[in-house]
Amino acid sequence: MAASPPTESILSQWRAIVICLIAAMGAFQFGYDTSYFSGILVMDAFAEHYGTFDAATGAMVVSASRQSLVTSIINVGEFVGAVTAFWIGQSIGLKGGLLLACIIVVIGTTLQVAGTALGLLIAGRLVLGYAVGLISNFVPLYLADCAPARVRGAIVSMYQFNIGLGLIIGVCVDYSTKERTDTGAFRIPMAVQYIFPIILSSGLLLFCPESPRWLAAKNRIDDCTAALRRLKGPDADVQADAQAIVQMLHQESLAGEGSSWRSIIKSSVELRKAYLGCALQALQQGTGINFITGYGPYFFTVIGIENPFIIQVTLYVVGIPATWISQYGIEKMGRRPFLLISGIPMAAALMIMAGVGLNLQEANPTLAASRTVVAMVFVYMIFFSFGWGPTVWVVCSEIATGHNRNKLMTLSTSTNWFFNWLVSFVFPYLFNADAANLQTRVGFIYGSLTLAAVAWVFFLLPEPAGRSLEEIEFLFESRVPARKFSSTKVDLSANAEGEAPKAVALADIEHVN
Question: d(Cα 165, Cα 188) in Å, to the nearest integer?
């Protein structure tokens, strides 16, 4: 929506906030799947069913190659889902795309729960991943489209917050079934995934309108106005919001800027937006978060920690307050400061973890070394939840503006899932004793990448906080440098002759020294 008038209270926009909170529940699926599957990897029942016999230990184990396959295959589905999300969203809308994702979640879950062979497990995770890829694209876009501009960052941060809650629920369910000796130990956690699409689809059908911007792009202006009233209240004056959306679409039409993949490559403006979104998502995965969420219980078990499930659930719980702080502070301080402030301690924690962990590979590792490694993982998780977790999704949903909005979000989200897959696939080969056997020394790799990410943000990432999506688009079109984004004033109002806001704004733009 357009920027809210300063006199308009947040409480008066409660409808839009509640609707966004309902849509944000889609993130539960992402968090839960990541968490519960990392837990069943260390269950004896799962190893008995899907593992192979290890003569050295005399037990059934899940090898590094099989761990890599069954864990990372979901990222392949997520990548494909993110890539195809543009066509689905273009055809049936963001709300329609989320409803379709709910149906696919049920199919993928059924394949996993009912399957008895490794092939069906892999197929189920691939299908489920496709749905998660759609959700990861549509939810941030829907939240950015429907949230009041003054609290858009906090609302989109709910995506990461709900991922965190899903992570906690996944570990708790695993903990409650881990002592079972039958296949219920891992099938029950799989079956819990039926709950999330039921809740999300019910909320969408009962309360949530379609994205106003999508409706306007389909020339359904009356439906666009109705959706805005549903977001702001039946008596609200939504004409200014509707006019801003329609004018921006009209401006793009006059300029001949139809949405196309070619235009992203040919236009330096569109290419800049695509680069920023893709680089930011790649750097987020480069910080190594997926080795903690995807292999946490296994990681803690290998370094000699008892009760890895308790450690893992505590790890996720301590990240929740950090996300709360982020939701409040991201609107006060902006996006760039949160990424910079959180990135440095994340890198330090990873480096210390790697250095201290060298003791664990000696003949008689100390308990103090193991506990220090765990402590550094906690420090890392707190600051990731504070900055790089929620803020990346906020920024990517904000800089994906203009006629290629859905395509730009598709590119950035698919980049996230590609590098998510890469980390998941490579980690067992780096970490496990039957491969490179780096163990905690992987922290040197992820710590170095995190420092590179901090430097990239400092020099190249613009600050979109406090802007309507139309204002952000104008700043990109005006080729405002990253370091001047926050100090540039824009007037998008049309003049008396009804000229397009872009033409008026080009004359009125003011750089504040």
Answer: 18
**Closest to 193 in 3D by CA, of 151, 135, 247, 237:** 135
At residue 76's C-alpha, the angle toward residues 72 and 78, to 5°, is 105
Q: What is the 3-state secondary structure (H, E, C) of 481-504?
A: CHHHCCCEECCCCCCCCCCCHHHH
State how far the Cα of 111 lies from the Cα of 129, in Å rounded to an integer. 12
pLDDT band at 492 (very low <50, low <70, confident <90, very high): low
pLDDT at 255: 55
CA-CA distance, 207 to 229, in Å (whole number)?
13
Measured distance CA(213)–CA(365) in Å, rounded = 58
Mean pLDDT of 35-60: 83
Whether the CA torsion 467, 401, 386, 351 is positive or negative: it is negative
Query: What's the CATH code, domain 11-208+255-477?
Result: 1.20.1250.20
**DSSP states along 45-69:** HHHHHH-EEETTTTEEE--HHHHHH
According to the model, what pLDDT value does residue 57 have? 74
CB-CB neighbours of 320 under 10 Å: 15
Single-letter residue type at 329: G
Q: How far is 258 from 249, CA to CA, in rounded Å?
A: 10
Burial level of 52, CB count in 10 A (0-12/13-18/19+)?
exposed
Cβ-contact 294, 38 below 8 angstroms: yes
Tell me the pLDDT of the chain averaged across its residues. Answer: 85
Q: Give the separation between CA 251 and CA 258, rounded to whole angstroms.
A: 11
What kind and span of H or E run contains 8? none
The answer to whether 177 and 188 are in contact (CB under 8 A) is yes
Find, among 38, 40, 70, 44, the residue nearest to 57 by Cα. 44
The pLDDT of residue 285: 93
Scored b (16 or more CB within 10 A) or e, 157-169 reads: bbbbbbbbbbbbb
Using one digit for the tens of pLDDT, what is the confidence trace for 334-382?
A: 899 999 999 999 999 999 999 987 776 665 667 788 888 899 999 999 9
| CA pair distance 373, 375, nearest whole angstrom | 5
Distances (CA, A) of 267 to 311, 324, 413: 49, 38, 21
- Confidence band for 463, pLDDT divided at 50, 70 and 90: very high
Segment (H or E) for 25:
none
**Distance between CA atoms of 282 and 421, rounded to whole angstroms?**
11
Say if residues 36 and 174 touch (Cβ distance below 8 Å).
yes
Q: Among all chains, which residue has been given the structure tokens 């219920």?
A: 184
DSSP class per residue in 316-361? HHHHHHHHHHHHHHHHHH-HHHHHHHHHHHHHHHHHHHHHHHGGGG
Q: How far is CA 29 from CA 42, 162, 164, 313, 502, in A?
A: 21, 9, 11, 17, 40
